[in-house]
Design a protein that fits this description.
Layout: H1 2-21, H2 44-56, H3 61-70, H4 75-90, H5 104-112, H6 116-120, E1 167-174, E2 178-183, E3 189-191, E4 197-199, H7 205-216, E5 227-233, E6 238-245, E7 251-256, H8 261-267, E8 275-284, E9 287-292, H9 294-300, E10 313-318, E11 322-327, E12 333-336, H10 343-349, E13 361-367, E14 372-378, E15 392-395, E16 405-410, E17 416-419, H11 426-432, E18 445-450, E19 456-461, H12 463-468, E20 480-483, E21 494-499, E22 505-508, H13 515-521, E23 534-539, E24 552-557, E25 579-582, E26 593-598, E27 604-607, H14 615-621, E28 635-639, H15 649-662, E29 676-680, H16 683-688, E30 703-706, E31 712-717, E32 723-726, H17 733-739, E33 753-755, E34 761-763, E35 765-767, E36 770-772, E37 781-784, H18 795-816
Parallel strand pairs: 6-10, 11-15, 16-20, 21-25, 26-30, 31-37
Antiparallel strand pairs: 1-2, 1-5, 3-4, 6-7, 8-9, 8-10, 11-12, 13-14, 13-15, 16-17, 18-19, 18-20, 21-22, 23-24, 23-25, 26-27, 28-29, 28-30, 31-32, 33-34, 33-37, 35-36
């Protein structure tokens, strides 16, 4: 799991290198081309991006090198990349990209290239590296809350060595009062008025104080009698210390003269992935004066208080031994071990065992010359077992088994786990579970028992005999006692009611349930219910072979408004799986609505009075047509029975026409365009001959629209200038085409048609070269369709056809001869 995460992180880092190093036209990254990344072309910002990813996920350069090699990167490129990382960390990079303006390609690349972290990692990949993969103590010097700032508000140490940059405060009091602020010059002296220079560089504060007081006696005769002098350190100097070796950022650092080794290491970022936490040396004047062991500080509170001096050298050595301890310890991870440290000390470093650790022995995996070996170390050997570099210590957990546990489940008052005491019997366990429930199945129970080989066996018992004391069983560890409920052992018994009731559904079967009870449970009748009779369908018994063609028994009962059955059925009780059906009354009809809009005296919605009501009847009820009504433009919009969700081309045109009607200034249809269609009607014939074939029967949801007198004609399709023009009864079809600029070159003239205001359509008819165009009326829409595309034959196809025709002609000629 961890290595898979590291490999994915490698993909991210190299993707970052590849994407940002290519030009702005590069849109894809091929993981197989990792080895082709040119490290020399990477900027410092790109290197910092890689460093940030490594530090965020706790990946060392060594681990990164292994992963890069596994993906095919060359050793040369890896070494170059590691060198660049160290240079950027130490601030020694010579990259001049900061001062050089970005090119346009580079700017565009920075703006538009997707961040490789978002591109290649999902939420799981963004998780940190497992804690067990980190070296304990390495993050000490990267903490934002533990900065190791030197203490400055403390009394001046008597052994503090003065030097250039230090400031002394001389306070004279008593018979004379005076204060001097003296800075040590680059020559190592301080100067007091009326006294010569006093050389104090390299002296401790105590020695320097005595020397200054001795010189002050020349101008203060009573010094030591009635005049006194206090000398203290004011502003401390800054010093330069050098940090080398296996640290994150090698170099020289300017620190306070009160700083210790910890302060300097924090500035340098602490040891790197190869650095030691236990062998950090402080050199002064070519002599080692102290060795820091970070673990002594972390575990024992031992802090080296040696104050740094100008020119001190701190060397972080490579680590000698690292071991890993995992699983049942409080702090899993890698630990650095000194020579001679034992397994017992490592366990202390790891915080000790967890509560579920198996402590009698620990397995240690050790690297040999060619292969690995495993050693089992017993508890009495922990103090003497020495650790080697690369050891992996696995502290396993105890078994998830119990020494004294029994279970009891199901139809008891307190099911669960109980302590098994010596000689405990089944009846005692039932008593501890507060006895069996009323629904317990008394004829049988079982004990599930583990055999020595962890297989199970079943021991059945008669619960009635156990409770009566006639028999009993001695329990063993991990026995599970199961006492079932009688309801669990029976099938799921239900009855069902359907039809004209409020809540048709399945209901649990209850003994002695009647039809009235079930109707009441289902919320009662709907208004449409037929209350005179109710039907009950009952399953045929599975063992009834008297009539093999019969599948069910059917009973019909009369029932009154108050849910009481007829007297002959008053003792009829439902059985499991009965189906009760309440029929719909044939005389129950709900009101259905139609609507008339436009030029009628009483527009609005009307309920259909009778099944054979027609359009003429609706017009009479709506007060007849006004003087402005245009009969030829009347339309009937009806919910279609042929609804197509996707919609063919014809269906799309139908919807478009209805939408145009609905947005007409004459009338507005509040309809579902997808489910509606227009029906062409002849209102003039309907008014002349009510009840004729033109006078259609009304259906629920019909909308009759009668517009005002229409005065325009719409021209659309393959015309040079599709438009809407004024209607003129003297104009012919071709005249209206001329009004739109004439046909376009792609017009299919022979298929022209007119869509009239009432929804009817009339097409162009032709005979030989003559065309009979339909008559144009007010509100009509002239539509010129598009000529279908015809692909021209290529020269090769023409030659092929000509050759074929020539061959046919030759064959025919031979046959005729």
């Amino acid at each position: 799991m961890v290595w898979n995460t590291l490999i994915r992180v490698l993909f991210v880092l190299v993707a970052c290198i590849f994407i940002n190093s290519n030009n702005a036209n590069s849109q894809e990254f091929d993981p197989s081309q990792i080895q082709n990344v040119n490290v020399d072309e990477l900027s410092d910002d790109q290197i910092r991006r890689i460093i940030s990813e490594l530090e965020t996920r706790g990946i060392s350069l060594g681990e990164f090198e292994v992963l890069a090699k596994s993906r095919g990167a060359s050793s040369l490129q890896i070494e170059k990349l590691k060198t660049r990382i160290r240079e950027v960390r130490s601030g020694r990079s010579n990259d001049d990209s900061v001062s050089t303006p970005k090119s346009e390609d580079s700017r565009l690349r920075d703006e538009f290239v997707i961040d490789p972290v978002d591109l290649f990692l999902d939420e799981e990949d963004l998780m940190d590296v497992d804690e067990s993969e980190k070296v304990f103590g390495m993050d000490l010097f990267q903490s934002e809350n533990l900065t190791f700032q030197p203490r400055v508000n403390i009394p001046t140490p008597v052994n503090y060595q003065l030097g250039t940059g230090d400031e002394l405060i001389v306070d004279i009091w008593g018979a004379s009062e005076q204060t001097y602020q003296l800075s040590i010059s680059p020559e190592g002296t301080v100067r007091i008025p009326n006294l010569g220079p006093i050389f104090i560089s390299g002296l401790t504060v105590k020695v320097a104080s005595e020397k200054i007081k001795s010189r002050l006696k020349r101008i203060y005769n009573g010094l030591g009698n009635n005049t006194y002098a206090d000398i203290s350190l004011g502003q401390a100097k800054s010093i330069n210390v050098n940090i080398v070796g296996e640290v994150q950022k090698q170099g020289s650092y300017l620190v306070s003269s009160f700083s210790t080794i910890f302060n300097a290491l924090y500035l340098a970022g602490g040891p790197n992935e190869n650095g030691s936490l236990r062998n950090i040396d402080l050199f002064r004047n070519n002599k080692k004066i102290a060795t820091l062991d970070v673990y002594d500080f972390l575990f024992n509170g031992v802090n080296i208080n040696t104050t740094l001096q100008d020119g001190d050298l701190i060397i972080v050595r490579p680590y000698d031994k690292r071991v890993q301890i995992i699983e049942e310890v409080k702090r899993q991870g890698y630990y650095e071990i000194k020579e001679g440290e034992t397994l017992s000390q490592l366990i202390q470093y790891a915080g000790g065992f967890t509560g579920t650790a198996y402590r009698k022995s620990i397995n240690v995996t050790r690297n040999k010359e060619l292969k690995k070996s495993i050693m089992t170390v017993s508890q009495d050997e922990y103090d003497d077992f020495s650790l080697d570099a690369g050891d992996e210590i696995i502290v396993s957990g105890i078994l998830d088994l119990y020494l004294n546990r029994v279970h009891i489940e199901n139809a008891v008052n307190k099911p669960g786990e109980y302590e098994l005491v010596s000689g405990m019997k089944l009846s005692e366990l039932i008593d501890k579970a507060e006895g069996v429930r009323e629904d317990a199945f008394y004829n049988r129970g079982v004990i599930l028992r583990l055999n020595e080989d962890l297989t199970k066996k079943v021991i059945s018992f008669d619960l009635k005999k156990i409770l009566n004391g006639e028999s009993d069983y001695l329990l063993q560890n991990e026995d599970s006692v199961l006492i079932k409920s009688k309801f669990e052992l029976s099938s799921n018994l239900t009855v069902q009611i359907q039809g004209e009731i409020r809540y048709p559904n399945e209901f649990p079967y209850i003994d002695s349930m009647t039809v009235e009870d079930l109707i009441y449970a289902a919320g009662g009748f709907e208004l449409s219910a037929l209350r005179s009779t109710v039907e009950v369908s009952r399953r045929k018994p599975y063992d009834d072979s008297s009539n093999p063609t019969t599948t069910a028994e059917v009973f019909n009962f009369s029932i009154s408004e108050d849910l009481s059955l007829s007297s002959e059925a008053s003792h009829f009780y439902l059985k499991p799986h009965d189906l009760v059906i309440v029929r719909k009354s044939p005389y129950y009809l709900e009101q259905t609505i139609v609507e008339v809009q436009g030029e009628v005296n009483l527009p609005g919605k009307y309920a259909i009075e009778k099944k054979d009501e027609r359009i003429s009847d609706l017009l009479k009820r709506s007060g007849g047509i006004t003087n402005f009504g245009y009969l030829k433009g009347a339309t009937l919009v009806r919910i279609t029975e042929f609804f197509d969700e996707d919609g063919s081309e014809a269906d799309k045109l139908r919807r478009e026409n209805i939408e145009e009607l609905s947005t007409d200034s004459v009338t507005t249809f509040a309809v579902d365009f997808k489910r509606s269609e227009t029906i062409g009607i002849n209102l003039e014939e309907i008014l002349k001959n009510p009840g004729s074939k033109y006078d259609l029967f009304l259906k629920p949801g019909d909308i009759l629209g009668i517009p005002k007198q229409l005065q325009t004609v719409r021209l659309r399709g393959e015309l040079l200038y599709p438009s809407t023009v004024r209607y003129d009864k003297n104009r012919t079809f071709k005249d209206y085409i001329s009004q739109a600029g004439g046909f376009s070159s792609s017009a299919k003239k022979s298929k022209s048609y007119i869509l009239y205001a009432n929804g009817t359509v009339e097409r162009t008819k032709g005979f030989l070269w003559f065309k009979n165009y339909p008559k144009v009326e007010p509100g009509a829409e002239v539509i010129i369709p598009l000529k279908p595309d015809r692909r021209k034959l290529s020269p090769g196809e023409i030659i092929s056809i000509a050759s074929g025709l020539g061959t046919i002609a030759l064959i025919v000629n031979n046959l005729t001869n």
